């Protein structure tokens, strides 16, 4: 669920993977939406975000998420 929330933030704000990583570090509101507590865990890095996005695309899940 967390990675999907992060993916939605990326789509809503039109951010690159690196831009999203930076935004998650800078924005407490984005971290709260994504369910990230910096005291417990770190923000996913740009490579992790890229791999997750590619996984969604490979299985045609982005279309399914936004079409329904």
UniProtKB/TrEMBL annotation:
Protein's name according to its UniProt entry: Transposase
UniProt domain Transposase InsH N-terminal: residue ranges: 1-54
PANTHER family from the UniProt entry: TRANSPOSASE INSH FOR INSERTION SEQUENCE ELEMENT IS5A-RELATED (PTHR35604)
Domain of life: Bacteria
């Amino acid at each position: 669920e967390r990675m999907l929330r992060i993916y939605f933030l990326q789509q809503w704000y039109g951010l690159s993977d690196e831009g999203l990583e930076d935004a998650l570090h800078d924005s407490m509101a984005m971290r709260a939406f994504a369910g990230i507590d910096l005291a417990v865990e770190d923000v996913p890095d740009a490579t992790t975000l890229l791999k997750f996005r590619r996984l969604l695309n490979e299985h045609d899940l982005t279309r399914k998420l936004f079409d329904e």
